Amino acid sequence: MSDRPEEYPRPEALSHTFYVYEVDRGDGEIRYYGEPLTPKASVVDRVAPLFRDRGYRVTLRYETGEHVLVAQKRSVGVDGIPWVNVALFAATILTTLVAGAQWYDIPLTGNPIAIAGAWPFTVAVLGVLGVHEFGHYALSRRHDVQATLPYFIPLPNVLGTLGAVIRMKDHLPSRTALFDIGVAGPLAGLVATVAVTAVGVSLPPIEVGSDALIRQVELGYPPLIQAIAFALGEPLVYEDPSLMVNPVVLGGWVGAFVTFLNLLPVGQLDGAHVARALIGDRLDRLQMAVPAVLFSIAGWHLVVGDSRAITLWIVWGVLALVLSRVGGARPIDQSGVDRTRKAIGVLTLVAGLLCFTPAPIVFAG
User: Fold this and answer.
1) Which of 168, 161, 181 is nearest to 258 (CA)?
2) How many degrees, rounded to 5, is the angle at CA 147 between CA 187 and CA 353?
3) Cα 134 to Cα 87, 126, 271, 285, distances in angstroms
4) Residue 275 to residue 197: CA distance in whole angstroms
5) Among 62, 157, 175, 233, which residue's CB has the most CB atoms within a 10 Å radius?
6) Which three-class secondary structure state does DSSP give residue 163?
7) How far separated are the first and last CA of the chain, in Å rounded?
8) How far apart are CA 81 and CA 62, in angstroms?
9) Are 200 and 255 in contact (CB under 8 A)?
10) Distance between CA atoms of residues 223 and 221, nearest Å
11) Nearest-angstrom CA–CA distance, 136 and 184
12) How far is CA 291 from the centre of its chain?
């Protein structure tokens, strides 16, 4: 890093927001020690454009009794091999293969290599999740926003994964950037969901035994999945109880379920990014209603629906409460988005409703 003064903001440039009494230039970062001259919550918002223009991202910290603005060089590229991402992806391949083997009713006892036969399930699930996250990543790069590659989350459950995420490690320059990055994932994921579902329902059904996992789990297919199957003239349920839909369809189901949940306008979810870009700080009031809606779905199941689905919506109601208190991304430029983006945003949120089903997954019994 060069120490030429013009390459980083001088203390006097911060004088209306942050009084600086010491500057420490270290390896890869600049630390401004001082005192906030405005409410702490607004300091970073006020100085972030100045730092971003010079290639830095800035955070306000309180260390050993002192306030310090820490400016670090921004980099939207990938430095070296992202070993954590690679390791998590490899682990998720394994866990989804194990889950897929259960869906295909592939016995692994004495022949663990047979797990490879579940590769279509793994490709379908990870493909949908990967396309969703790379949609976010691609638009982050386009708007010069520093973001990580996707982190896949392995989990030994019926799907083999808890999904995937990317982390934005930067200030968002505008509501337009917030909208584009937020909406890109669900839209890309919807395209992948349609494609995977179309392939899945077109594949021949599988024959499974009475102890197969697919017989122990009941899936609720949302309108989007049902419409694709109907358009192709393919069933999602067979009269012969020994026949089950090809597990590749599960990739489409995952895509629809993930899309619906991500489009909830709360916290750091995609729906909150899209909603904040469209309506600004009015989102703070809107997201307070989300937990109530999710708890209401649980209540509906308690009275007239499927009692086996109650726990799912209670869990998501609690998560929504937590997420609403975490806060969401706040762009630097609060100017509104254009009419085209408003229309795309509304259509995306409507598409999210097509991915909803009251009882997405329940266990038979």
Assistant:
1) 161
2) 25
3) 18, 12, 17, 30
4) 28
5) 175
6) strand
7) 63
8) 33
9) no
10) 7
11) 5
12) 18
d(CA 12, CA 89) in angstroms, rounded, equals: 47
pLDDT for res 6: 52
Number of neighbours of residue 198 by Cβ within 10 angstroms: 17
Contacts of 38 (CB under 8 A, 6+ apart): 17, 46
Alpha helix ranges (H) inside the chain? 40-52, 83-103, 119-142, 175-202, 213-216, 223-231, 248-262, 270-279, 283-286, 289-303, 310-326, 339-353
Greatest Cα-to-Cα distance within the chain, rounded to the nearest angstrom: 78
Q: Answer yes or no: is pLDDT of 329 > 60.
A: yes
What secondary structure does DSSP assign to 168-222, as a single string?
Answer: B-S---BHHHHHHHHHHHHHHHHHHHHHHHHHHHHSPPEE--TT-HHHHEEEPPP
CA distance 364 to 117: 26
The residue behind tokens 């520093």 is 146
Taking the C-alpha atoms of residue 170 and residue 184, their distance in angstroms, rounded to an integer, is 18
pLDDT tens for residues 345-356?
A: 999 988 999 999
Residue 127 to residue 131: CA distance in whole angstroms: 6
The predicted pLDDT at position 360 comes to 93
Residue 267 Rama label (left phi>0; alpha psi -120 to 50; beta): left
